[in-house]
Amino acid sequence: MIRISQLQLPIDHSLEDLEQKIRKNLFLKAGEDFSYEIVRQSLDARKKAEKKFVYTVDVSCKNKKTERQLIHKARHKNVTFIQRQDYQFPAAGTQPLRHPPVIIGSGPAGLFCALMLAKNGYCPLVIERGSKALKRKAAVERFWNTGILDPQSNVQFGEGGAGTFSDGKLHTMIKDPAGRIQMVLQTFVEAGAPPEILYQQKPHLGTDLLIGIVETIRKQIEDFGGRFLFETQVTDFLCEDNRICGLLLSTDEEIPVQVVVGAIGHSARDTFETLYWRGFHMEAKAFAVGVRVEHPQEMINQALYGEAKHPLLGAASYKLTHRASTGRGVYSFCMCPGGYVVNASSEEKALAINGMSYQARDGRNANSALVVTVTPADYPDASPLGGVAYQRQLEHKAWKLAGGKIPVQLWQDYKNCRESQSLGEVLPSMKGEYCLSNLRGLFPKAVGDTIEEGMAAFERKIFGFARPDCLFSAVESRTSSPVRILRDQKMQSNIRGFYPCGEGAGYAGGITSAAIDGIKVAEAIGGSLNTQQ
User: d(Cα 262, Cα 265) in Å, to the nearest integer?
Assistant: First the structure.
């Protein structure tokens, strides 16, 4: 197969233009037959008056000898011969399977672990403390409208995990030559995602699509023999001779287990505590905290595209980083073009926020987290759960600041440490009630000062970023897990048979990377257990 990279075309090109570009690069004459697949599409907007789409394509000819001849004829570094790698699940192990694998959590890590095990005959059981997707959606919307929180089924807990109520970003920085990334994206497409996610530079799904997609994946797992227990929490872990042997459920049922996958998500604080007191090795890890910042989406489009709207480009996104004089990193995180700031709380009298977009990304504002790195040296105690305590302190303060509503402040007022009295031209795009407040005292001085310095640095990169009336809201505290549940090269904890997995265990950071970690854990289990023994 021939791979051609760096194919540049104007943004208003046609498919015929792309095919002609392929022909030109391979010196193919009119009538010479070929087929192609788009591998990657990215936007080059460095010259705003000459924006281009840049493609990588894989080209096939019926005669493989012809492909070699075409590459030789092209003699260009952007034209190469490749052998594509299809994903392969490993051969089954030799240890007899006595009990179905149990997976705790139905976020991306848990779902993809379950899907791979189910496809290969292991009939996993998935235990999820929250509700099925549609029922969960109703509970979340009720919370946003009334403030009545369901601590077990909310933005953080329930079918699909925390990523279901997000922008649904699917790009990842990890490298995976085994083909897992493409397999994850293909699974989403088969479950109802747009096929364009297979090649877009920054694919995303949006909350409105994700709800149906995770339901479809669950039904696929069930069709392959998997089972689900919703609205059921694992309350204790039973161990003998340094091996997990049983789980105690919130229904008072005790079930025997052979292997357990802990795909519990980054907000399962009660489960972290139970694991810690039961002797599972874990450590505190760094994460980041800060605010959400909102700007008009058309302003971001103008700064990055050179025009406020373009029907072929959609809402512009950004990624910003700065090393502050305080020694801390400050950066944008989970940027949501045309999105909403959402109340993402999961505990009573504690407030956490997140960003969310629908698939169309057609909201009036852009928002992203503006966060500062914190480390175990910042935490109130030196235990592995010190980061959890740090999060809770911030979230309780944020809840008190606005009586459970989302506290909001204009950037100019944050800079001057005064409570905002009125809004400017930027109006909040939010899910959940909000209240004008003063956020500056919410954070330790080093964090608050770093956010201020970051805003000045980002203004130099995006004109208008530090406009006086852009909006801050708080607190963004769930950027990643505050703990890492330790595992060895076989993916197991010190308590054998327990497999820490995904973002909550400290091994992923987003939907795709969590899904891939779930697949890797499924491979480790499948490579040791055999359903036929």
Answer: 9
Domains of the chain in start order, with CATH, are 2-81 (3.30.70.2700), 95-283+483-530 (3.50.50.60), 286-476 (no CATH)
* Tokens 């096939």, located at residue: 60
| β-pair partners for 228 | 126
Lowest mean pLDDT of 64-73, 412-421, 522-531, name the range.
64-73
pLDDT tens per residue across span 392-403: 999 999 999 999
Q: 140 in helix, strand or coil?
A: helix
3-state secondary structure of 131: coil
The pTM for the full model equals: 0.95
327, 322, 305: which is closest to 314 by C-alpha?
305
70, pLDDT greater than 80: no
Which residues, listed in sequence order, are joined to residue 247 by a DSSP beta bridge?
Answer: 237, 255
- The string of pLDDT tens digits covering residues 272-330 is 999 999 999 999 999 999 999 999 999 999 999 999 998 889 999 999 999 999 899 99
**H-run or E-run covering 448:** helix 445-459
Q: Over range 242-251, report the average pLDDT.
A: 97
Tokens, residue 118: 């189910």
Which of 387, 159, 163 lies closest to 273 in space, CA to CA?
Answer: 387
What is d(CA 215, CA 114) in angstroms, rounded to the nearest whole number?
Answer: 13
For Cα atoms 368, 369, 373, give the angle at the middle one, nearest 5 degrees. Answer: 150
CA trace torsion 195, 199, 200, 206 (10° rounding):
40
Q: What is the mean pLDDT of the chain?
A: 94
Which has the closest alpha carbon to 7: 55, 71, 78, 45? 55
- Cα 302 to Cα 43, 45, 296, 310, 524: the distances in Å are 15, 11, 10, 10, 48
Mean pLDDT computed over 427-439: 97
Query: CB neighbours (10 Å) of residue 383?
Result: 16
